[in-house]
């Protein structure tokens, strides 16, 4: 009988904490030491370092490429147009009955 490992609850980190860990890395502390000491995933630390180096912000919207931003805007516009089209179809059906 194998015991299932409980998933770790989702944790959130403040921008100050993220910046502190990035500063530790930039001051010469090894990634593996930071990961072990603060019990975070290596990929998470890598992501924070890249975000800090690219934009200086840890917000996802500040770290999007222009292509990603354009895709989000086009999807939003597409949803809006579909909704307007559905409204017009319903109006045509209603007016067609009269």
Outline:
This protein has 98 residues and is mainly α.
Keywords for this structure?
98 residues, mainly alpha, 4 helices, 0% strand
Structure report:
The chain is mainly α and 98 residues long. The N and C termini lie far apart (70 Å). 4% of the residues are buried.
Instruction: Give the strand tally.
Output: 0
Distance between the termini: 70 Å
Question: What does the largest sheet look like?
Answer: none
> Beta-sheet strand percentage?
under 5%
Low-confidence stretches: none
Rounded mean pLDDT is 90
Q: What order do the helices and strands follow?
A: HHHH
Rough outline: elongated
Q: Helix fraction?
A: 55-70%
Gyration radius, rounded = 23 Å
Number of H- or I-type helical stretches: 4
From the helix content, strand content and strand pairing, which structural class follows?
A: mainly alpha
Describe the SSE topology:
Blueprint: H1 15-26, H2 31-38, H3 42-54, H4 66-97
């Amino acid at each position: 009988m194998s015991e299932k490992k409980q998933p770790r609850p989702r944790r959130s980190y403040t921008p100050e904490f993220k910046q502190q860990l990035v500063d530790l890395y930039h001051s010469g502390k090894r990634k593996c030491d930071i990961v072990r000491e603060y019990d975070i995933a290596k990929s998470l630390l890598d992501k924070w370092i890249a975000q800090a180096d690219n934009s200086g912000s840890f917000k996802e919207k500040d770290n999007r490429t222009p292509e990603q931003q354009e895709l989000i805007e086009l999807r939003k516009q597409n949803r809006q147009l579909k909704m307007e089209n559905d409204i017009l179809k319903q109006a045509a059906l209603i007016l067609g009955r009269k």
